[in-house]
Amino acid sequence: MAEQTSAIENKTARIRELVDTLSAAGRAYYQESREIMSNFEYDRLYDELAELEKETGIVFAGSPTQNVGYEVMSSLPKERHEKPMLSLNKTKSVEELQEWLGDQKGLLSWKMDGLTIVLTYEGGTLAKAVTRGSGEIGEVITNNAKVFANVPLNIGFTGQLILRGEAVIRYSDFEKINAQIEDVDAKYKNPRNLCSGSVRQLNNEITARRNVRFYAFSLVMADGVDFGNSRKKQFEWLCSQGFEVVDYKEVTRDTLPGKVQEFSDAVSGNDIPSDGLVLLYDDIEYGQSLGRTAKFPRDSIAFKWMDEIQETTLSYIEWSASRTGLINPVAVFEPVELEGTTVSRASVHNLSIMEALELGAGDKITVYKANMIIPQIAENLTKSGVKDIPKHCPVCGADTEIRQINDVKSLYCTNPDCQAKKIKSFTLFASRDALNIGGLSEATLEKMIGVGFIHEYADIFHLDRYEQEIVTMDGFGQKSYDNLIASVKKASETTLPRVVYSLGISGIGLANAK
Fold this sequence. Notes:
By secondary structure, the chain is of the alpha+beta class. The chain is 33% helix and 25% strand. It is globular and about 75 Å long.
């Protein structure tokens, strides 16, 4: 059976390779007007892929043999889970992990930082996908799961299969998506937030563009399959059906500390967002016999790394104005080494957090990286108190005011015509997900607003009034001008959701705009 499983895994790996190769060739040919392989070679690889899919029963959403239709929905239906999806108990102590594992064998894996999804297959076909939601009730996102980059639409097993896993957007894909957004305020904050929005889109064409991936971490049910009472064999079987499973290592009490260290060493190079590790018993029956508490299952436990904390001195608070008028405080401190990189800045987010930390220039502070990635202030050791809150906007010089929304106090610029608001608002208006006006970067907009060509959104559509002036602007010429005007003309015919999103209304992202 092991040899048979290995052979299927080899064929699955070849299917993935062919899907990637043929998809790259298709993009080059249809989107970039270039060829990276001959038609003969493409057809040969296509036929090989089709034959392997027929032989194994495994077909991925991204396969060139499939034509997955895009669909727009008015809302996501809700569904109650058959069994509650509980969160995991946590520890930061390796010794506690060892004590918990005892004499059992365990599987140690990444605790991925995305959105938990339950997939159901009927008759070898993906029938349903539901988010974790509240743990009791989730949202049905079947159409979106069908365009995840690595989810099989069909598998060889024809009984009912239910499995759980994490939908994630890899750091490399997250950085590519953010690199296409010129407005700093419009950039996505982290891969988890982007993934959550992508998975819950009403238009699965947007989901497909985000390259969401699914990694299985638990097999709930597979009708009639004997796994020899082993979670590891479940993982191996899922691999044979075409699923990617979370990276894991077999451990015992004695080998556990070394394996935890191996994962720790791999964090900086891990492309999949993670906020810790998960340890579960390999023995299925033993784990199930332990039952659960009201909040946690007893067959698995989460491990969080002890944060590396460094002491430093706060040099000053930098105040950064945004398109919403919010003036964000950023702590600038003497550089320190954290998790292998040098850091000297950390967002403080708002005045409420500054006041809670009693944060002032010259204070001795401790800093760490949340999830070993995002610099944060852990503690203020000297607490000199908040002082020198700007009375004037750092961009336009207008008066500032403190506003309290719910329990959060923040600083705002009161000038509706503040240059920062204008530039960043117009940058969002012209950005790719809004009206997609090529040639209107933040720097170009700053120049055009500065010389009076643009005062309001409508002015963008009348830039042809200033042809002679624009052609002679630094960095421009006739060709650049012609391209800009063509892009503006194209943007004048667009969709209502793009217009709504482009207005930069607080709390209205792409999904809400639709």
